[in-house]
Amino acid sequence: MSEIGLPSGIRACLFDLDGVLTPTALVHAAAWKETFDGFLRHLEGPEFQPFDATTDYDEYVDGRPRADGVRTFLASRGIELPEGDEDDPPDHDTVHGLGNRKNIVVLEKIRQDGVKPYPGSVRYLEAVRAAGLRTAVVSSSANCRDVLVSAGIEHLLDVRIDGVVARERGLRGKPKPDTYLEAASDLGFGPGEAAVFEDALVGMDAGRAGRFGYVVGVDRTGQAEELRRHGADTVVSDLAELLGATA
């Protein structure tokens, strides 16, 4: 195990964004709650069951492309909406309309509060690059680049595979491994030479399905055992814990 906590054969690091490099998972969870609660209140009245920003977010939304998150959560409540079109206005009660409604909310929150990266993640990115490894960010978010710029870490990542790129290239979202495999390929490596860094359970599933060389679970919310069950080779609460780690 190297001084960056990875097997010696690893040549590329593939990082999820929200919850791994930046604390924006909390922003997304709050935006989903505001969006879903407003929709459910309108649909079911004041006795509706609110969206849980921890359990519902982790189970049905975290790590998934936006439309998949809408479908999966609503299905858990026995609700089915028309698909609509990707450019549906946010007041349309369609899968895409509800997703676009959430996107407006999250962008407002990011603009109001800005984004700061996790300090330990910045230290780890710098160490990885100093060790000669290539880096990529792999996110289902269509706002990935805006977040990277706001956080001041875009220059630390060689490749970006996000919701925009996935749509352009026809890549399936997590838990399918397509976006991670694409990032490794863009960096010039096979999956066995790449490590995946994820906080979402569907991201763990993607890492396992893609047969990557190493999968690091990042536990920010107390789900270490779930991350291990979904395929993490190791679990840390902060990427800086990997620095100087030995096997």
From TrEMBL:
InterPro entries: B-phosphoglucomutase_hydrolase, Beta-PGM-like, HAD-like_sf, HAD-SF_hydro_IA, HAD_sf, PGP-like_dom2. It is an enzyme of class 5 (isomerase). Residues 79-98 are annotated as: Disordered. GO terms for molecular function: beta-phosphoglucomutase activity; hydrolase activity; metal ion binding. The keyword Isomerase applies. Keywords: Carbohydrate metabolism, Hydrolase, Isomerase, Magnesium, Metal-binding, Phosphoprotein. The keyword Isomerase applies. Its cofactor is Mg(2+). It catalyses: beta-D-glucose 1-phosphate = beta-D-glucose 6-phosphate. Its EC number is 5.4.2.6. Belongs to the HAD-like hydrolase superfamily. CbbY/CbbZ/Gph/YieH family. This is Beta-phosphoglucomutase.
